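Ticket opened by: R.M.
Priority: normal
Category: complex prediction / small molecule

The reporter submitted a protein together with iron/sulfur cluster and asked that the result be attached to this ticket for the collaborator who will pick it up next week. Submitted input follows.
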Amino acid sequence: MKALSSSVAMRKRLTRREFLGEGLLASLTAALAACTASDGSFTSEAHATPTFELPDPKGLHEARHYRQLTGNTVQCQMCFRSCVVLEGGWGFCRNKVNIGGRYFTLVYGRPSALQVDPIEKEPAFHMLPGGTIFCTGTASCNFRCKFCQNWHLSQRHFNEMDHYPTTPDETVKMALEAACDAVSFTYNEPTVFYEHMFDVAKAAKAAGLRTLCHTNGGISEEPLAALLEHMDAVTVDLKSFSPKFYREISSAELEPVLRTLQQIYRSGVHLEIVNLVIPTLNDNMNEIQQMCRWICDKISNQVPIHFNRFFPDYKLTSLPPTPVETLEAAAAIADKEGLEYVYIGNCPGHERNSTFCPACGKVIIKRAHFHLISLDVEKGRCGFCGHPIPGIWWDV
Ligand code: SF4
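Result attached by the on-call engineer:
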């Protein structure tokens, strides 16, 4: 889901040259931070020399899911990186800082993006069709995807962004005032603002709103289990089925994402999967077939999958947009493997923007891009033949 640039303002407007300089520094820091400790976790000794000035801990929110090690060192347990952070250092995501042996998050109550969107834009196609969702995001990310469509938000440090002080209760109030049906945590990776997300989700559920998280899936098992208690739906980016792609294009790992997908499905929380198809990088049809087969075998053929069109952005501006034929070929493979709800995204007007009943073949949710045209799902069933359709519906 791409954030509108109008909703995100950078405190310090960087020139392209300045940005590239900052990016290089971040890359060097990340490269140094990528040394692994004896237990296999990422150590961030390089962060002992902070990239950014240490903030005053007064008023900062203490992070969740970390442990204290000896000598005022901490280990974050929020995502697959398990950053080991020395006193005065920052986590890989640059949102968390060790001050005096306590770990703090900078972004609690300080989102950098607040926006009302159609729920379909997440994407979430089996959740309150035609509804509106109050979206929130912050600075930074725990991945470094070269193709990021929201890089102006996700690849920035908190200090480089404008932020809008908003408590969880105020967020919910704004969502209700905007007559939204749900709140979502999106644009950048919500795992890096977990503490804020958790409290907003809890308050939103108490106020009768639905909740959705759009994630890269790198979150650890324990924080995810706690979060799912307050989440109605999760959209996960499965960026590729290749560990090499994850390592080289996203500076991340595939395996934790696969584990996350299975954990979400097992929890009963509604799950949708997005695969951004990028020319030459992850458009190999054998790999797409393996991915679809894995989803059917290890999760379910009922999970909606969205093959989204890539447009040149961030560090991959030399690649062309994904040909529509490539997306259609991927969708045909997903059909053949048995996935029942297969969509093509970022292609306004394509017939696969709509939902077809897998039993009778009729269009049950007609869409043009993110806009709802007609809805024939009644009490969670096809309005024509009565076949059950997974999702979160208005009348159930
Ligand atoms: S959430 Fe941030 S600090 Fe924590 S392990 Fe992940 S990248 Fe490291």
